[in-house]
Each structure stands twice: as structure tokens, then as C-alpha cells.
TrEMBL record, chains A, B:
The active site is at S166, D331, H364. Substrate binds at R235, D365. This is Homoserine O-acetyltransferase. One of its GO terms (molecular function) is homoserine O-acetyltransferase activity. GO terms for cellular component: cytoplasm.
Length: 391, 391
């Protein structure tokens, strides 16, 4: 099987890697998708991209899962004028660890996202208006079940690997527990198998900040409008948790935007770290929906791979795939200790699990930054799986 | 010298330690106080409490400095029905490390506070309305200079010791650098000598959250009204930074307030950590002013003991008092590394400086919790200073 988009990618070559997003719609009519909560949702459209060519045996597929504000545009460009390529372009492409000369890479916008897949900002067919806060609560497990529908649609029975960082890593782990026989490898990065109380705390504060913005209006706002300030502040907070004290000190220190001595005492004179965060906050507002942000945070809060499966240890022990956890030493929002704990639980149960620590001052976001250091480790793991599978 | 309140404390004995807050007003009329910024402010009323009796030589005075949301009520009770005693009552009292049988303890509400000392919530004599955002920006150094005026008023020429945690510790360090000949000891706890970029980041997010609340209204609100929701959310965020992942996991884990299986997917079903933070946020609103919160955070942002003094190292090296830094191993918002750095800078310069690390899962707030562990260390340091001074 080789879709148009796949051929497109293949034909364009590595210098101009143009990729066309695709969509897949299912759960239509009476065939609605039943969420974990019991709520029914449909139809569901999934936006996705693929890179490389699916081989005849359909044995070279790798699924990449994105993080909170990420999307299905993981590599290449959608058009030549695009400023920057997809978010993991440093790892996905010809000769890169996720080698498009060897593998068929799939990345989809998650269920409940706002970048093409059905979510709170989508039109509710029953009302003709955006779902808003009427969208049902969904979980990481639901996201994975929707990805499974896409994989089925692509005619793939078994994945070589599922990989992703942060919320992407949560999907990786849910894949491993929900469909243990469907992949040879798992690569969860800077993530958790159950959300910590600290993580829930930050998510709740971000949600409340969005809800405090009068423009939120109970979640009922016109597309493109909405609580810009609330979402921007939530993003500012998110950004702080994704970085480290060490990085901020080195990069911004105590420098101010206005260094006139008298300006030091101006209430509104910003330190450079403040300007940076405001810039990041405002930037997210341009491309992200506030209700969706809240639902995605809620989905992360509800993450516990052991829920309804006899507990955390038992669920992790049921993973059949070779698993490499990658943690970041300076990541304080998804502390390495919990990834080490998962690897230990799996090893004790006889699973093929390992842990590698990325040394970086970049904090949680190191998985989106430290490509030089990650590349050999990821390449070795991916190729090891592929060699085992004789791809 | 022995004021009424001091006698009161002495007479009531240790079982019913009742203390009366006092006030001192200065900078009246044309004698306005000139802030670091050059702005003039007056009159300034300072609310304070004292515990124990000032000796004839006036040589047994200890100044305690409070943290962001603290106040001058550091020990005892203001009336018998009061629920809990002052915030450092476990360390201040007869036979305690700050032994009121031996020492005369002073604690004042900081300049720009909202618990009795002149601040943004006070009435601006020029307008007859609360200062609000018309209050001038002040610094930790300004707070210390106002405390100096109080110390002068009490007829004390030299303090035995200045002690405090968090924002209190910042005042301790500014005391040591601003008035190096005025004390024998300094006890800065869980604090910094210059605000980190990470600390500034959190403070800015808290300020913006307050300002996002429509009830903030540019800082113009009636006393007792104001941005309750914004301040509550800011406090929730503050609380998260004062604690640790380890503590939250042990205390709240992933427990929900409604444990019915179906309630798991309710958007509004709170995890216990969320309920706890909401409770803390709402509680602060009852006793704290939002504009004041913003100004105090700004004062912390502006903290750099080296500013205008030839730099950080030179300023710290100018401290003459024996100094013991206490850091908390799990404190990630005021990381021990910066306190260790300050102690090293001082030692290299020939200062009498040491560092002790409090091992605790309580994070930054350990200085308000871990009294059993702190007591012997604080007592030993305080008594060492007092013995040296032959008090």
C-alpha cells in the first residue's frame, strides 16, 4: 500500500521534503465511537501526516505521538515557504534516526486536538456550533484507541515502534498496555505512566487562568476569538515548567528590557525572562484553542496506565514490546525518578526495558531541543528493533 | 526601656502568651521617606509586635523578618480565642531558640504590606482613597530601611541578630549589607541574594493572573473587594512552588474528592490536590490584598544585594555579621545551590559564614514546618551569638 501523500514525500526527495496532511473520518452515523467515559462521539476526523513509504509487508511503520501543543506535522514542510519544518524534523527524514528511507512514519493530531482532528473547537453536528465545553471528557487511552482506528485504516496490523515525548510519551505507554501485541518497540520520553499530583496542580492552575478570562465565557466563544489573555498566561506557566532554573539563569539572568537606571523601578519594566514568556504566550494563542488546552490537560490528569487493569505494576508488566525510557536530568515536571521506577517495575517482571538519561539544562523540553545527543541513542534503539524484525 | 506590650507579654507568662500589636508612625509632613526609586512616601505607619523584655544595655534585641504573605504576628496570640499562635511560635517563646526569657524579639509588617504597615491598600492622604497602583514601587532594601527607623525608635543601636525565611531572608541579607555594623548575626533561611529568572517568571505569572480578573480594575477596588479569583489562583501557584513533588505525591497522590467510578470522567471532579490548592487560595483572599501581593512580588524581583554596590560578590563580602545560611534540600524555587554560593563567596572573602541544609520533603515551606529539625541548629547559632556578645 502506498498512498498519494507517501509517494509525494518519496518523490520530492530530501532537499524539498513537502508533505501533505491527510484526513481520515470514521465513527459516522450510528457507528459512534464510545469513549472510556461511556460518552459517544462521532463522526471523528483524524488529521495525520506520513513520511517515507510503507513496505510491501507493511512491517516498517512507526507511529509518532505528539505533545500537548504539538500536532501531526512532525517533519518536512507543508509548503516550500513554511518557515520551519515539523517539530521532530531533526529526528525524522532520510538518514535520520526515524529514517524515511527505511521506515514509514505516521503522526496524527490527537483526539480532542485543535489542529485538524475532532475536538472541542470542532463543529458539533447536532448544533452546528463548536462543541466548546460540551465536548466529552476523553483520556490518553481514548487518543490511542483513535490512533488504532487510523492504523487499521492504513492496513497496518503491527507497528515497529511507537515513540513520543511528554503527552506523546503517555500515549506510547498506553499503546504498550492497551495493544501489547501490536508493536515491537516503545520509546517513551520525558513522560509519566500516571500524572503526578504536582502535574495535576499546574494543569488546574492553567485551566483556572483560562476560565478567569471573561472572553472564555463558559467555553462559548467564536472560532479564533476566545480567552487570549487567559490562554497566554497558561502558556507562560506551561513554558516555565518545561524549562529549568539553570537554563533561565544562563539565558536571561536578571537583564531587563529597559536598562535605563531610572527604569529599574518602573512597575511595568519587564525582565527579559518576562518578555520571553509573554512572547511565547501570545504566540500560542495564534495557533491554539483554549478549550482544547483545558481538555488536553484534563486528559493528562486522568492518565494512569494501571487504572482498571489491576494497578500500575501489573499494567506495566503486561507490556510486551522492547521499551527504552528516556528521561532528562533537569526535567522537574516529569522527574526522571518515575521513568526509572517504570523501567525497574518492567525489568523485575521480565520485560525488556531500559532507561537512558539525557543530560541537559533544557529541562522537560530537552526532547524538542537536544537532537545531537538524542540522535545516536534513538537511532540505535530504532535500528535494533528494525533489525530484530528484519525490516 | 520597656514598653507596655513587652510588660504584657512578660506578665502573662508562657501558658497564655498574649501580645498586643503596636504601631509606630514616621515620615510625616515634610519629612517624607525617600524610597530607593526617588519617590517620596509619608506618613508611614509600621505595625509590629515584640516578645520578651529589652535589657538595660539594649543588647538583646533580635529582629525577625516575615515572608510574602506573613506579617508581624510571629508568636503568641493577640487574644485568648485566637485559633493558632503566630507563624514562628514554635521558635519564639520561653525556652525556645528565640528565647523570650533571654531575648527581646521584634517583628514588623514590611513596608508596602497590608497587615497594618503602610502599603497599597492604605489610604493615600492626598486622595482619601486607597493608594492601589499609585503606590510607589519599593524594594527589599526600602523595607529594611523602614525597619531601621523602627529600631531607632525603639532606642536600639545594635541588633543581636536578624533572622527570617524566604522574603524574610532577603531582608536579612539586605540588613547585613546595608547596615553591616548594626548586628552580630544573620540567619537567612530558604532565600536568595538576588531573585532568579525562574522566580521572576512565577511572580510575573501570578501578577498577570491577578490583573486578568475583571475585579482587579486597574488596581482600583474598594477595601475588602478586589480580584478574589485572580488572587486565589496566584496563591494556588505560589503554594505549588513552596512545596515539593515528593510531598504532594505522599499527601494527595491521585485521590479524587468524588471516588465514584463514573465521576472519574467529570470535568469538574477535583483531585484532592486541586481541592487543597483551591482551599489555600480562597483562604488567602480573606486576609490579603491583591495589589499588595503584586507589589511584594515586584520587590522580590528587584532584589539584588549587589545592585549599586559593586556587584554581588563585593556586597556579600561586606557583611560583617556571623552568618548561617539554612537551605532546604527539596526547595526548588529557592534552590540551596545559591545559598551555598553565597556562603562560599563570603568565606573566600574572610567572612564568618556557614551553610546548613535542612533535609525535608516539605520544599521551600520547610522553614514554617520542620521545627523539630531546625530548633537545635537555630538555638545553637542564636546562643553562640548571644554568648559572644555576653548577653
Amino acid at each position: 500500500m502506498s498512498t498519494g501523500a507517501v509517494a509525494n514525500w518519496g518523490l520530492m526527495g530530501s532537499r524539498e521534503r513537502i508533505v501533505q496532511p491527510q484526513t481520515f473520518t470514521f465513527a459516522e452515523g450510528s457507528d459512534a465511537f464510545v469513549l472510556e467515559s461511556g460518552s459517544r462521539l462521532g463522526p471523528i476526523t483524524v488529521a495525520y501526516e506520513t513520511y517515507g513509504v510503507l513496505n510491501r509487508e507493511r512491517s516498517n511503520a512507526i507511529l509518532i505521538a505528539h505533545a500537548l501543543t504539538g500536532d501531526h506535522h512532525a517533519a518536512g514542510k507543508n509548503h516550500p515557504a513554511e518557515k520551519a519544518p515539523g517539530w521532530w524534523d531533526d529526528l525524522i527524514g532520510p538518514g535520520k534516526p526515524f529514517d524515511t528511507n527505511r521506515f514509514f512514519i505516521i503522526c496524527s493530531n490527537v483526539l480532542g486536538g485543535c489542529r485538524g482532528t475532532t475536538g472541542p473547537a470542532s463543529i458539533n453536528p447536532e448544533t452546528g456550533r463548536p462543541y466548546g465545553m460540551d465536548f466529552p471528557v476523553y483520556t490518553i487511552r481514548d487518543m490511542v484507541r483513535v490512533q488504532k482506528a487510523l492504523i487499521d485504516h492504513l492496513g497496518i496490523e503491527r507497528l515497529l515502534l511507537v515513540a513520543g515525548g511528554s503527552m506523546g510519551g503517555m500515549q506510547v505507554l498506553e499503546w504498550g498496555v492497551t495493544y501489547p501485541d501490536m508493536m515491537d518497540g516503545l520509546l517513551p520520553i520525558a513522560t509519566a505512566g500516571r500524572m503526578t499530583a504536582m502535574g495535576i496542580a499546574f494543569n488546574e492552575i492553567m485551566r483556572r487562568t483560562i476560565m478567569l478570562d471573561p472572553a472564555w465565557n463558559g467555553g462559548d466563544y467564536a472560532p479564533g476569538k476566545g480567552p487570549a489573555q487567559g490562554l497566554a498566561i497558561a502558556r507562560m506557566l506551561g513554558m516555565v515548567t518545561y524549562r529549568s532554573d539553570e537554563l533561565f539563569t544562563a539565558r536571561f539572568g536578571r537583564r531587563m528590557t529597559n536598562n535605563q537606571p531610572k527604569a529599574y523601578f518602573d512597575f511595568d519594566n519587564r525582565f527579559e525572562i518576562e518578555s520571553y514568556l509573554h512572547y511565547q504566550g501570545d504566540k500560542l494563542v495564534q495557533r491554539f484553542d483554549a478549550n482544547t488546552y483545558m481538555y488536553l490537560c484534563k486528559a493528562m490528569d486522568l492518565l494512569d496506565v494501571g487504572r482498571g487493569r489491576g494497578g500500575y505494576e501489573k499494567a506495566l508488566a503486561s507490556i510486551a514490546a522492547r521499551t527504552l525510557f528516556i528521561g532528562v536530568d533537569s526535567d522537574w515536571i516529569y522527574p526522571p525518578v518515575y521513568m526509572i521506577e517504570m523501567a525497574e517495575i518492567m525489568k523485575k517482571a521480565g520485560c525488556d526495558a531500559g532507561y537512558w538519561e539525557l543530560k541537559s539544562p533544557h529541562g522537560h523540553d530537552a526532547f524538542l531541543v537536544e537532537f545531537e545527543r538524542m540522535r545516536p541513542v534513538v537511532a540505535s534503539f530504532v535500528n535494533g528493533i528494525a533489525d530484530m524484525r528484519q525490516v
